[in-house]
Each structure stands twice: as structure tokens, then as C-alpha cells.
Amino acid sequence: MGKQPHERKKAVALRYREESESAPRVVAKGTGKLAERIIQTARENNVFIQEDPDLVGLLAQLDVNTDIPEDLYLAVAEVLAFIYGLNQELPGRHTD
User: Fold this and answer.
1) pTM of the model
2) In what order do the strands lie in the sheet with 10-15?
3) 67: which of 17, 23, 39, 89 fits an S-S bond (Cβ 3.0–4.6 Å)?
4) Is-contact 22 66, C-beta < 8 A?
5) Into how many domains does the chain fold?
6) Is position 1 within any domain?
7) Which string of b and e fits 34-48 if b means at least 16 CB within 10 Å?
8) Does residue 94 fall inside a structural domain?
9) Left (φ > 0), alpha (ψ -120 to 50) or beta: where does 33 sit?
10) Cα(89)–Cα(87) distance, rounded to whole angstroms?
């Protein structure tokens, strides 16, 4: 059996400020060591991490400082709704 090629880790960071932004925005993205740094920074700042390779693959195609396109609203909204639910259950946890 041949060895499977190792797929590099990918990460995309989103920001959404309902009061000032019309859509979630890509604020960082990367693969490999940069992806690991993005994830570590999120953990250090108590930012929720969602592992969804399909969604990350789509978001990784966007440029940094770009609002997500309308066709991804539903997928991202589901993640945000989950995060908001967690925030209500876990006092002191925030997403800003």
C-alpha cells in the first residue's frame, strides 16, 4: 500500500461585530505552521474553535479582510449560533 500524502492543517479566523459589520469577515488564514499559530492564538484568547474542513476549505479561498459571500452565510450563521449558545451557557466566555 502506498503512503497517503499528508494534508497540511488549514485555519481561517473570522470576526463578526453585529453592530458595525454587515457580514463576518476573514481576518486571518493560513496553512501548516501559520494555521497552528492561528489556532494557538485563538485558544490563548478563549476564542471558540470549530473544526469543519469543508467550511475552512471554502473560507480559505477568500482574501484576508474580505466579508464572506452570501452563499456561505448559512454555514457561518450555524457556527455563530452555536457559539452564541455556548456563550450563554459559559459565563465569562466571549467572542470579541
Assistant:
1) 0.75
2) 10-15, 25-31, 66-67
3) 23
4) no
5) 1
6) no
7) ebeebbeeeeeeebb
8) no
9) alpha
10) 5
3 inside domain: no
90: Cβ–Cβ under 8 A, 6 or more apart, which residues? none
Question: Is 5 among the domain residues?
Answer: no
66, β-bridge pairs: 26
Cα–Cα distance, 24 to 69 (Å, whole number): 9
Residue 68's CB: how many other CB atoms inside 10 A?
A: 20
**75: Cα separation from own chain's centroid:** 11
Cell of 55: 467550511
Range(s) of the domain holding residue 31:
10-89
The enclosing domain of 40 has a CATH number of 3.40.1690.10
